Amino acid sequence: MKFDCTYQPYTSNRYTHVASNGMIATSQPLAANAGLDILKEGGNAVDAAIATAACLTVVEPTSNGIGADSFALVWIKNDEKLYGVNGSGYAPKNLSAEELKKKGINKIPKFGWTPVTISGTPATWAALSKRFGKLSLKQVLEPAIRYARNGYPISPVLGYFWNIAYKRYSKECKTVEFKEWFKTFAPKNRAPKIGEIIKLENHAKTLEKIGDTDAKSFYTGELAEKIDACSRKYGGYITKEDLASYKVEWVNPIKVNYKGYDICEIPPNGQGIVALMALNILKKYNFTFKDSVDTYHKQFEAMKLAFADGKKYVTDPKYMGVTSKELLSDSFADERRKLITDIAIEPEPGCPSSGGTVYLCTADGDGNMVSFIQSNYMGFGSGIVVDDTGIALQNRGVDFSLNKCDYNYLIGGKRTYHTIIPGFILKDNKAVGPFGVMGGYMQPQGHVQVVMNLIDFDLNPQMALDAPRWQWIEGKKFIVEPNFPTHIVNVLEAKGHEISIATNTGMFGRGEMIITDGQVLYGGTESRTDGSVASY
Q1: In what order do the strands lie in the sheet containing 477-480?
Q2: Per-residue pLDDT tens for 432-456?
Q3: How confident is the model at residue 432, as a pLDDT?
Q4: Which of 63, 307, 318, 320 holds its CA 20 to 30 A away from the CA of 289?
């Protein structure tokens, strides 16, 4: 992959990081350095990824927690193979659309126990550690435990989003089941201020139990009992039987070849396939310039078509009406590409022939690399924190449909359409590197933009992340960042796109990337947050 690591047209003070022994890229400097410490203690890229992920539950609880879901793509150099892990949770067995409708619920709420699905993150850490780690899970969780127990200072972007979350939860989460959230994350009856030291003692104790038991406590032990008791206390659906039956899934990554590079994603229920469908449509175009009307118009149209198909079909693969292979077939991409003209269209799903979040990436000096993502969804998640544990539970169930005609219809034991997606690039069956852009439905859009920045426009990792982003909202509506070229906006609007210029960059995702040439690591981090690369 060609890129110029000296020229930085989209940023004034951030440059691609270069190292050879190891690298961690993520949204919090403390977490990145925790992962680096684990590498220096003899751990590999997998150990570093787990340490960084666990630390992020402490130092960025506005985006993820112990009660989150996780996905990972893992390149193991000795095997010359990319492995996939689906650590998403499924709906409790006793939860169903029919059950909710009996209670007069016609739309799944964002907060409370109803949208809570089984948490897959602790099991994902344990599974990765057992299969590929060099150090014990207990050892790699130690940095996170220290930060939770001893405290850490609130960084600028973290403080900003914590304050927003506090205001939202204060308005919408007033009943008794949310009391523990305020006790845990707003002990002074306010969000912590930037620079203020915050301690999460219950969080530390829970991480210790997870480390001591290889996560068994969370699913069959003391922590499972506490989750079950809290669920019963407040009328939740999760039971200890649900927790005991949970297993992560080892999956084969899906991919498309985009101009000589294999772009890899986790298969559904994740939405990574949306990015791949868009790239499959775009791969037969020759793009001369990044900042051109033709480039953006075709990207916009391909993204809309891919999302139309993704939102219709993607769910737990056992319930999909089509397969990933069918959705990623060249014939289907060819048919979708024919719909792209010079004018913006309203996207509709096709018919293939049938037969809010933290991201991190790590690399070590031995050639192993990890693309890892975990999320509570919508910030802190459901607003539920299990009593005396610090476990903030996700609210992934909100994406289930209560319409029986939809593939993503809510059924107990089913996984929902999932927004969080790690990415990975291969060339000739060799690792190029991990990448990701977190942020709800922005994620596949960020993946497409970053991949094209690298491959079509030869931008280096930092430039590829810093370049102005756009996001499809619905119909013909898009939003673009404030530094998006105005003259291009004007012409795109003349083609029928409805474009709004955002007043801030918080809605355009947060990305990280590590690329290797086989010897040297090149890393980029997100300028839209407290992003950091730690390397040596």
Answers
A1: 470-474, 477-480, 498-501
A2: 999 999 888 999 999 999 999 999 9
A3: 97
A4: 307
CA distances from 25 to 45, 161, 356 (A): 12, 20, 18
Residue 354 buriedness (CB in 10 A; 0-12 / 13-18 / 19+) = exposed
CA 206 to chain centre: 23
β-pair type (498-501, 477-480): parallel
Which segments of 103-166 are extended strands (E)?
152-153
- Write out the H or E segment, with its range, that includes residue 148: helix 142-150
How confident is the model at residue 1, as a pLDDT?
65
Residue 148 token pair: 């939770």
Residue found by looking up tokens 């999760």 in the block: 238
**Rounded distance between C-alpha atoms, residue 118 and residue 69, angstroms:** 8
Beta-carbon neighbour count of residue 500 at 10 Å?
A: 11
Contacts of residue 487, defined as CB under 8 A and 6 or more positions apart, other chains included, come to: none
Q: 169: which 2 tokens?
A: 């939860």
Concatenated DSSP letters of 234-278: TT----HHHHHT---EEEPPEEEEETTEEEEEPPTTBTHHHHHHH
**CB 230 within 8 Å of CB 276:** no
Which sequence spans correspond to the domains of the chain?
Answer: 17-250+358-399
- d(CA 35, CA 33) in angstroms, rounded, equals 5
**C-alpha to C-alpha distance for 87 and 68, rounded to whole angstroms:** 9
d(CA 147, CA 142): 9
Give the tokens for residue 76: 């193991």
Res 353: pLDDT: 53
pTM here? 0.94
Specify the DSSP element, H or E, that contains 127: helix 121-132
Residues in the chain, how many?
Answer: 536
The three-class DSSP label of residue 132 is: helix
Rounded Cα distance between 23 and 127, Å, is 22
Residues 6+ apart with CB under 8 A from 502: 479, 480, 481, 482, 508
CA distance 395 to 92: 12
Residue 219 CA: distances (Å) to CA of 123, 215, 234, 409, 533: 8, 7, 20, 26, 33
517-521-524 Cα angle (round to 5)? 115
CB 276 within 8 A of CB 110: no
Taking each helix axis from N to C terminus, what angle separates 142-150 and 201-213, rounded to the nearest 10 degrees? 160
What does the angle CA 177 – CA 231 – CA 242 come to, to the nearest 5 degrees? 150
In the predicted model, residues of the chain with pLDDT beneath 70 are 1-14, 353-356
Question: Collapsing DSSP states into helix, strand and coil, what is residue 300?
Answer: helix
- Token pair in block for residue 379: 């910030």
| CA 87, 93, 99, 103 torsion-angle sign | negative
Helix (H) or strand (E) holding 309: helix 293-313
Q: Give residue 12's pLDDT.
A: 44
Per the CB < 8 A criterion, the answer to whether 373 and 60 are in contact is: no
